[in-house]
Amino acid sequence: MTEAQDLGFIDGCRAIAGAAHVLTGDDCAPFLTDWRGRFTGSARAVVLPGDAAQVAALVRLCARYRVPVVPQGGRTGLVLGSVPDASGDAIVLSLRRLNRVRSVDPRNRTMTVDAGCVLHDVQAAAAAHGLLFPLSLAAEGSCTIGGNLATNAGGTGVLRYGNTRELCLGLEAVTAQGALWDGLRGLRKDNTGYDLRDLYIGAEGTLGVITGAVLKLFPQPKAAITALVALGSPADAQALLALAEAACGPTLTGYELMSDVCLRLVAGHFPALPRPFPARYPQYALLELSSHESERHGTALLERAIEAALEAGVARDAVVATSIAQSRALWAIREHIPLAQAAAGKNIKHDIALPVSRIADFIAATDALLEDAIPGVQVVCFGHLGDGNLHYNIAPPAGIAHDDFLLRQDEVNRIVHDSVVAFGGSISAEHGIGALKRGELARYKSPVELGLMRALKAALDPLGIMNPGKIL
Amino acid sequence: MTEAQDLGFIDGCRAIAGAAHVLTGDDCAPFLTDWRGRFTGSARAVVLPGDAAQVAALVRLCARYRVPVVPQGGRTGLVLGSVPDASGDAIVLSLRRLNRVRSVDPRNRTMTVDAGCVLHDVQAAAAAHGLLFPLSLAAEGSCTIGGNLATNAGGTGVLRYGNTRELCLGLEAVTAQGALWDGLRGLRKDNTGYDLRDLYIGAEGTLGVITGAVLKLFPQPKAAITALVALGSPADAQALLALAEAACGPTLTGYELMSDVCLRLVAGHFPALPRPFPARYPQYALLELSSHESERHGTALLERAIEAALEAGVARDAVVATSIAQSRALWAIREHIPLAQAAAGKNIKHDIALPVSRIADFIAATDALLEDAIPGVQVVCFGHLGDGNLHYNIAPPAGIAHDDFLLRQDEVNRIVHDSVVAFGGSISAEHGIGALKRGELARYKSPVELGLMRALKAALDPLGIMNPGKIL
């Protein structure tokens, strides 16, 4: 692009979004660095449109000038999916001004929202109608629902309510040609042609830009009961899950696994947090049960399941929270694991999924492979066991500097991801691919699957302007 | 194709599937007529491959000879999706020999099956492990899981468990080029690229052939409780649904609506079935609650919800089944509506979905439009109200012959479907498009959405050999 063309393009952006909403030069900086601060890209401009029609007009302009478009929500992604590359060719298209809850339909249990709504605001708008939007994850105060949809975000409520994909009934999106597709249907059944909705969901902005969505809401449970159960092994954690699911059915809404390594890490860095058990155990499960009847009903049901597990020798000890404060304190242990890890120094992270039945075998096998390769290596393993999703993070052996250890990232990734694939798992459970795991995707996907994905990309974005360098 | 080419093609089919599994001439007849007997097509041959590799080889052969492929499961579809057109160009590719349950993983709550497994056999295989596969519909003794997936079948369990789409974790499919895609992953989280699974699901065989699937299983509830509630209006049915959902949460697993017209029709044609109430009421709701605790727990919970509805004036009368036989008898009333309609003569059927909140207004408005156009017309309206899915069927006024009435099908469809779209609904909730509703799809979908669908079809099936004339 010549300088004159560039000026013409920027003027075009200003004409569409208003001059105040087109940032250039140093003003772009807050939009260019990823959440963990590992990479800073460059952009021709950052444009903040005010509505979906402006998004469509901007994409048409970008198509005309062949300018790459990097859609951006709350910029909380963990795989470099929402920041531009270093070339400076792209614009960042920030959706943050599209932040209206358009409507709530309590009788249909749906809500229609702009893509730039912050997840926490979506949850609050549902709660204001006595309803639940169950998507819940650490970044909920900053991430946007559009980003959650683009990455098919997971979190702690998937066991009962599914991923973001399952929480969306309808979608509005701008195609790579800049056409506005209105698929904002609030229907629980609709078999009229190809499933465009689920194609845009999880595509990380590489096929188009999500501008709005119809979300599924749920009746608000009357009480949530939390328990922490001490266990001898990951196999016991699997057995307890099966037992709790059979006893509690859909009232079991959360099931998290944490190893003793995780609890010690949290205790070391956050000594004010409670230590629930006088003794130490190899593993712990955090259970959440939601009752639509009463707190008493939920507590009795969860206690019965845990007593059965203690009697069967599956569980070794347990605490059931008797107040909201106690429940929060138990969750706080789980939520402080990533913070404690960050405080302890850099580590090599993996967001993996496995069949639930293979978790224990995977952990045993992969721990051993890592110990063989790097004696003394520390595995910090926790996650959403109910969904088969582990955050299997690797820290250096004592005495090895964290930065030196990071140089072995490729070697560690190969051991872990080869093992994941051997156990029938996924190298990205809930974070997506972005630019970070693009090489890993190419390595592990079959040629048939890669070919199908490339055919879809070429069909829907023939100019290749939508978030290039992400996923494929 | 010359005669010699045709012989070469048929020989090729025999070489792949075995001569005994390639039918020609009159032997094809049982595969050519649709379930309701409204249309009989013609085929070059019916081929019954024995495994997915043979399916792939057959599709490659068809691609080479440019022979259209019509995938067929149990042939129970209602929209002419699985029978060939009259040209005789296509082969029918019957999946019925692919009927193995490949494996069950109870701890992962998944089952891997061939596409040709009959739904009832899938349910039974899950039950043999104490687990539930919740897809349930009238044709379950004949339909195949591959057909359920290809049409994203709905049924009576959607309120709690979702459509077939939500019950499938992984897929195996043969592309239009005859490549075998192995996406048989049993994972509850997997964000590694585009959602190919959901693209093949619901595509009615127009993008490829589904040959296998990993299905989600659920803990088996300990008891299912059924109740029939008499109501004053569709608006009361909506109010009762909201009340029951708030009180029962996810234990409410079924919610069906039937009008008094439906009950009188059933009573007239099946006088041996019970009449649950001494008086008549305008509408009835059939509720099913599933308890993971006990029959006593489930009954008490459902009775509390119904008592609250009676006190609030939302419900007028109610019976809660006290035995499995009573429960079956209540369901039998619901299940006999389509049979009673068939016995009464031909009618004009609509399988529609609406936002649950708009059902009552839709029924009132559309009933009035039809009465204006055709005085005395009979609306036989029932369906899965919990999912917003109505079977809104129209029978002739008294004294008008059914065959004469059918001549007004286009006029009736226009009134009903225009109204559906005006109320934000779908012209096909759970049956799909097939060849039958292709014109309606083209009429009601936006140019943007049709353009996206055509781009996907051209990208994945550039030769246009996969089930041509269906959907698009």
Automatic annotation (TrEMBL), chains A, B:
Residue ranges annotated for the FAD-binding PCMH-type domain, each copy included: 39-220
Pfam families: FAD-oxidase_C (PF02913), FAD_binding_4 (PF01565)
InterPro entries: FAD-bd_oxidored_4_C, FAD-bd_PCMH, FAD-bd_PCMH-like_sf, FAD-bd_PCMH_sub1, FAD-bd_PCMH_sub2, FAD-linked_Oxase-like_C, FAD-oxidored/transferase_4, Oxid_FAD_bind_N
Top-level taxon in the UniProt lineage: Bacteria
Any one biological process term the GO annotation gives: respiratory electron transport chain
Protein's organism: Massilia forsythiae
Record keywords, A-Z: FAD, Flavoprotein
Cofactors (names): FAD
Alphabetized PROSITE patterns for the sequence: FAD_PCMH
Annotated GO MF terms: catalytic activity; FAD binding
Protein name: FAD-binding oxidoreductase
Similarity comment: family membership: Belongs to the FAD-binding oxidoreductase/transferase type 4 family.
